[in-house]
Amino acid sequence: MIQINPPKYVRQILFGLQARGHLAYLVGGCVRDVIMDMTPQDWDICTSALPEEVMELFPGSKPTGLKHGTVTVTVGSRSAEVTTFRTEGDYRDHRRPDSVTFVSDLITDLGRRDFTINAIALSVDGMISDPYDGVKDIQKRVIRCVGDPKLRFTEDALRMFRALRFSARLGFTIEYDTCEAINDCAPLAAELAPERVRDETEKILLTSRPETIGAAISFGLMKRYISGTGWKSPNFADIAAMPRKALSRWVAFAIMLRKYGYIPSAHDFLAELRLDGRTIRCCADAEQMLSAELPEDTLGWKKLLNRYGVDSVSCAVQASTVILGVDREKELKAVLKSGECFSLKHLAVTGDDLLSLGLKGPDLGEMLKFLLEYVMEYPDNNKREILLELAKYSEES
Predict the structure, then answer these.
(1) What are the φ/ψ torsions at residue 144 (nearest 5 degrees)?
(2) Which of 54, 97, 210, 353 has CB atoms 3.0–4.6 Å from 239's, for a disulfide?
């Protein structure tokens, strides 16, 4: 028996289902986390109740995956996913089952799950249902498929990425048969939607073991996007020293791949994975900055910040630290902390101020640019009266 104290709203859902004569258990990642003495991020519940019965019992719940038996139940401001026990039909697209059949048996439901560590159910009174020895695998710190690993990965190719992600996040090893099955089934990953590959890759990059993404590349899980083998293996472990921010880690990852010949273009690589425009832009900017020397003085940093923006420059500096071994973060932080002007939004005058001097159109834009360049070189003169006088004098002359 395990001591468990789920949040009040989760207990309300469990007790509400049981009060109507339905079986109800915590299942999946939240159970794994409880066993590992970690705080669950989400609470998932499986039940013998049909989706319609769940919705009737909890008014206001939403059928977020009705075809697959999933209902999101909201209690107050919190919510949990409640899914009916089920078995699954064929997976012709190697991602989603063509059909599901609702069942009343918990063990049958657990048998359809991906890994033994996620195929454990826990009742609200602490009783465990563990037909596939998931608790033992947690104790041994092992990732192992439920049943035949080739069948599991043929059903859902994304499970291969999930195996690596759990390995990276939890520090578990992947057992031999599961590892061999990933190697054999890797070509199926080419059929996955780019967004799914992107999300799993990002989750791996954001762990304390980002080097696990190297295993995904070696297995061939990303061959659709990374066709080359490169002339040198990037040290993806260095990414762990970066802040756990998706933007900077994606930029460093893409530039590493480009630098060592794994991809022809960091921009195209990120675009193919459906990364957002901000990340793609910052990566392109950072790559351009790293092709030259970073500034040696405050004025140079301010000019760089003016041209590329804080996000891009910050990404370039962080990438420089892990890729080139050149740490310039203290210099950049000092410039940012100084509060000295490097953009028009920090300039002590605006376009409206210059309109009163009769400036307009291209002349107004050129004057703002001139004043900004002046202030970046003489930061103490970023005062409205000084700049207006300078603009008036420059215009007259």
Answers:
(1) -140, 140
(2) 210
Q: Which of 373, 349, 382 is nearest to 300 (CA)?
A: 373
Q: How far apart are CA 9 and CA 6, in angstroms?
A: 8
Three-state helix/strand/coil letters over 266-280: HHHHHHHCCCCHHHH
| CA angle at 216 for the pair 280 and 155, rounded to the nearest 5° | 105
* pTM as predicted: 0.89
Type of residue numbered 337: K
Is the pLDDT at 397 greater than 60? The verdict is no
Contact (CB, 8 A) for 84 and 92: no
Whether the CB-CB separation of 38 and 52 falls below 8 Å is answered with no
Q: Which residue has the tokens 């009769």?
A: 358
Closest CA to 295 of 317, 310, 311: 317
- Cβ-contact 217, 205 below 8 angstroms: no
- Above 60 in pLDDT, residue 99? yes
- Give pLDDT tens digits for 159-195: 999 999 999 999 999 999 999 999 999 999 999 999 9
The DSSP symbol for 42 reads -
Nearest of 326, 236, 247 to residue 283 by alpha carbon = 247
3 backbone dihedrals φ, ψ, rounded to 5°? -75, 125
